[in-house]
Design a protein that fits this description.
The complex is a heterodimer of chains A (about 270) and B (about 325).
Chain A (H helix, E strand, L loop, with lengths): L8 H27 L3 H10 L1 H34 L5 H7 L2 H4 L2 H12 L6 H4 L10 H26 L2 H9 L4 H30 L2 H7 L9 H10 L3 H36 L1
Helix pairs in contact in A: 1-13, 3-8, 3-10, 6-8, 6-11, 8-10, 8-11, 9-10, 10-13, 12-13
Chain B lengths: L1 H19 L3 E9 L3 H19 L2 E9 L1 H9 L6 E3 L3 H9 L18 E10 L19 E2 L7 H15 L6 H13 L8 H9 L6 E5 H9 L6 E4 L4 E4 L3 E3 L1 H7 L2 H10 L3 H9 L3 E2 L2 H6 L9 E2 L1 H5 L2 H9 L4 H5 L4
Parallel strand pairs in B: 1-2, 1-3, 5-6, 8-11
Antiparallel strand pairs in B: 3-9, 4-6, 4-7, 4-8, 4-10
Helix pairs in contact in B: 2-11, 3-4, 5-6
Classes of the chains: A mainly alpha (about 270), B alpha/beta (about 325).
C-alpha cells in the first residue's frame, strides 16, 4: 500500500459509510420496504395505469427537456459572466442563486401570477393562444426555473480555469472560431455540462412545490408523478405511494447512471482530443 | 437567623402561590386549514373559562394543514390530544390505527360536529354569467374552480353536494348523477390540491367563472379587502358539511390530559362558543346563536351525508378510493 501524506483512511471511510447509510440508504430502504406491501401484481397494475404513465411521462419528459434547456441557457449565462466585464455583473452573478434560496412554493406562486391569464405576461400570451400557466408548458417553466442555478454554478469554475493560451494557439494554428469552440473548448466542458445536466434533471424530476401551483393538475394532461404520490397518501395508501416513489427512484437511477457513463466516455474523448 | 426565616417564608410563599394559580396544561389541537381564526378565538375563550373554574392555565397549541395530511400526521405520531378536521373519514382513519375508539362519532352530540358549514358558489361581481344553481355550472363556456377531491376534504364535500343535487332532480338516479358530475368536472380548468389554493386561483389569478367553496371560506373572502369583487350564490340544494371533533384517546391518556381535552370539546357546544363560531362564519348548532346571526347566513336547503350517502367509509370506498367513481369520471376523462 502506498504511504499517504495525511493519515486517517480507516476513520474517514467508516464515517463516510455510516453517514451515507444514515442519511441516504436508511430512508431508501424504508421506502423500498414499505413498497413491498403492494405486491408484484399491485406494482404491475400501478405501472399499467394510463394515469400513472401519463404522470411519469410528464415528470421525466419535462425534467429531461428542462435540463436540456438549462444546459444551453446556463452555458451562455456562465460564459457571459466569466468572460466579460460589464456593469452590474456581480449583481447578476448573485441573482443566479435566487432559485436555490426561494421557497419553491413562492417560486410557483410568482410564476403563476406572471403567466396566469390576468398576469403581466399572461395577458399578452394567452390571447395569442400561448397558455403557460395551468398547462404543461407551465410545468416545464417551473422545472427550468428550479434547475437553472445548477448548470451555471457547476460551469463557472471550469470556465474560469480554462487556459486562454489554448484558444490563442488554436487560432494561430489557423482554426476557425467554430472549430476553436467545438474542437477545443467544448470537449473540456462536456463532463461539467453533463454534471450540471444531471443535477438539473434530478432536481426537476422531484420538484413538487413550485410545479403544483402552475400545473393546473388535470389528470392525463398536467399532473406530475409526485402529485400522484401525494394523492395516494391522502387515500392512506402508503404502500402504493411508496411503490410509485420506488419506480421514480429506479427511473432516476437509470438516468443518472447513463449520464455517468456518458461522462466517463466524454472524459476519455476529451483526453484523446487534447 | 432572621434572614434564613425570611428566605424560607419566601420560598414557601412562592410554592403556595404556585399551587393557588394552578398547574399548567398544554393541549395540542390538530385542525384543518380554514379554522385558524376560529380556533384562535375559541382557545382564548376556553382558557379563560378553565382558569376561572379550575385555576389551571391551559395553553392550546394549534397545528393546521390539509385535513387528510393532519390525520396522517397524527397516525404517524403527531401527539395531538384532540383532532378537529374537515370530514369524519379522516378521523375514522386515525381510529382505524387504534388511536381512538372507532365509535368516536357517537361520543358527542350532533355527530360530534359542534358547528357546520355548507357548499356555496362564489361568483364574480354582478354575477355576469348568471349562475344561480348547479345546472348553470355545466352550461357551455362556464369554467368551474374546485380543488381536487383526492387531496382536499372540502372538495369532497363539493363533489357530494353536486352528486346529491343531481340525485334530487326529477327522475334523478345514480346514472344521471354520474353523468352530471362528469360533465361538471369537464368544466374544471385547474385542480388545486387544497381549498385555499383554489380560492387563490379564482380570486387572485382570475381563473374561472365560479368557485365551489366552503360557506365559511366564501363569507370570510367577502369580508376581506377586495371581497366586494365577489358575490355568494346559494344553490337550490346543497350538502350540510359537518366538520367533526374528537379526543385522541391514546395521546390524551399518555399526556394525562383527557379531562381537559374532553372539556375543551364540550366547550365548543356552549352558548359562548357557538357565538364565536357564528362570528367566524361557521353555522352554529344552537338555535339561539343561529337566530342571533341569522342575517349573516342565507337560507339554504341542505341534505346530510347520512341521508343521501350513508357513511363516510362508504363514500370514500365508492367515490374517492383508487379506481373509484372520481377516477372514472374526473377531469381528463
Amino acid at each position: 500500500m502506498r504511504r499517504r501524506v495525511l493519515p486517517g483512511f480507516g476513520i474517514s471511510l467508516g464515517y463516510t459509510l455510516a453517514y451515507l447509510g444514515l442519511i441516504v440508504l436508511l430512508p431508501l430502504v424504508a421506502l423500498a420496504w414499505k413498497a413491498t406491501g403492494i405486491g408484484f401484481h399491485g406494482l404491475l397494475q400501478l405501472l399499467a395505469s394510463p394515469r400513472t404513465l401519463a404522470a411519469l411521462r410528464l415528470s421525466f419528459g419535462g425534467a429531461l427537456l428542462a435540463a436540456l434547456l438549462n444546459v444551453f441557457l446556463g452555458l451562455l449565462v456562465a460564459w457571459t459572466l466569466v468572460r466579460y466585464r460589464f456593469p452590474g455583473r456581480r449583481l447578476f452573478d448573485a441573482l443566479i442563486d435566487l432559485p436555490f434560496a426561494l421557497p419553491t412554493a413562492v417560486a410557483g406562486i410568482a410564476l403563476t401570477a406572471i403567466y396566469a391569464p390576468n398576469g403581466w405576461l399572461g395577458r399578452w400570451l394567452v390571447p395569442m393562444g400561448i397558455q403557460v400557466a395551468y398547462a404543461p408548458p407551465g410545468v416545464l417553466l417551473a422545472m427550468v426555473f428550479v434547475g437553472f442555478p445548477f448548470v451555471v454554478r457547476t460551469l463557472q469554475p471550469v470556465l474560469q480555469s480554462l487556459a486562454r493560451d489554448v484558444e490563442e494557439a488554436a487560432e494561430s494554428l489557423g482554426a476557425t472560431r467554430a472549430q476553436t469552440f467545438f474542437r477545443v473548448i467544448l470537449p473540456v466542458l462536456v463532463p461539467t455540462l453533463l454534471t450540471g445536466f444531471a443535477l438539473a434533471l434530478a432536481r426537476a424530476v422531484g420538484e413538487y412545490g413550485s410545479v403544483i401551483f402552475i400545473a393546473g393538475n388535470i389528470p392525463m394532461r398536467s399532473e406530475i408523478a409526485p402529485l400522484l404520490i401525494v394523492q395516494k397518501l391522502e387515500e392512506f395508501d402508503y404502500a402504493g405511494a411508496a411503490a410509485l416513489g420506488v419506480v421514480m427512484l429506479a427511473f432516476s437511477f437509470v438516468l443518472l447512471v447513463l449520464i455517468a457513463l456518458l461522462q466517463h466516455w466524454s472524459g476519455r474523448w476529451a483526453e484523446r482530443g487534447a | 437567623m432572621m434572614k434564613l426565616r425570611t428566605a424560607l417564608f419566601a420560598i414557601a410563599g412562592t410554592l403556595l402561590s404556585a399551587t393557588a394559580t394552578g398547574k399548567d396544561v398544554t393541549l395540542l389541537n390538530a385542525s384543518y386549514d380554514p379554522t385558524r381564526e376560529l380556533y384562535k378565538a375559541l382557545n382564548a375563550a376556553f382558557a379563560d373559562e378553565w382558569k376561572a373554574q379550575h385555576g389551571d392555565t391551559v395553553t392550546i397549541r394549534m397545528s393546521h394543514g390539509g385535513s387528510g395530511k393532519q390525520a396522517r400526521a397524527v397516525v404517524d405520531g403527531l401527539p395531538a390530544d384532540v383532532v378537529t378536521l374537515a370530514l369524519a373519514y379522516d378521523i375514522d382513519a386515525v381510529a382505524d390505527r387504534g388511536l381512538l375508539d372507532k365509535a368516536w362519532q357517537q361520543r358527542l352530540s350532533d355527530n360530534s360536529s359542534p358547528y357546520t358549514s355548507t357548499i356555496v358558489f362564489l361568483v364574480r361581481k354582478g354575477n355576469p354569467k348568471a349562475i344561480h344553481d348547479w345546472k348553470d355550472l355545466v352550461r357551455p363556456g362556464i369554467q368551474v374552480v374546485t380543488p381536487n377531491p383526492k387531496t382536499s376534504g372540502g372538495a369532497r364535500w363539493n363533489f357530494l353536494a353536486a352528486w346529491g343535487y343531481a340525485l334530487k332532480q326529477p327522475g334523478g338516479n345514480e346514472a344521471s348523477a354520474k353523468a352530471f358530475v362528469k360533465t361538471l368536472f369537464q368544466h374544471v380548468p385547474v385542480l388545486d390540491t387544497g381549498a385555499r389554493g383554489a380560492t387563490n386561483t379564482f380570486a387572485q389569478r382570475g381563473i374561472g367563472d365560479v368557485l365551489l367553496a366552503w360557506e365559511n371560506e366564501a363569507l370570510l373572502a367577502r369580508h376581506e379587502p377586495g371581497g366586494d369583487q365577489f358575490e355568494i350564490v346559494v344553490p337550490s340544494v346543497t350538502i350540510l358539511a359537518e366538520p367533526p371533533v374528537a379526543v385522541v384517546d391514546r395521546n390524551a391518556d399518555a399526556h394525562g390530559t383527557r379531562q381537559v381535552a374532553e372539556a375543551y370539546l364540550k366547550f365548543l357546544y356552549t352558548p359562548q362558543a357557538q357565538e364565536i363560531e357564528a362570528r367566524n362564519f361557521y353555522r352554529p348548532r344552537s338555535a339561539a346563536a343561529a337566530a342571533k346571526y341569522a342575517a349573516q347566513f342565507p337560507q339554504v336547503h341542505t341534505f346530510t351525508l347520512a341521508e343521501v350517502f350513508g357513511s363516510w367509509r362508504q363514500v370514500q370506498a365508492k367515490f374517492f378510493a383508487d379506481g373509484g367513481v372520481f377516477d372514472q369520471i374526473g377531469p381528463g376523462h
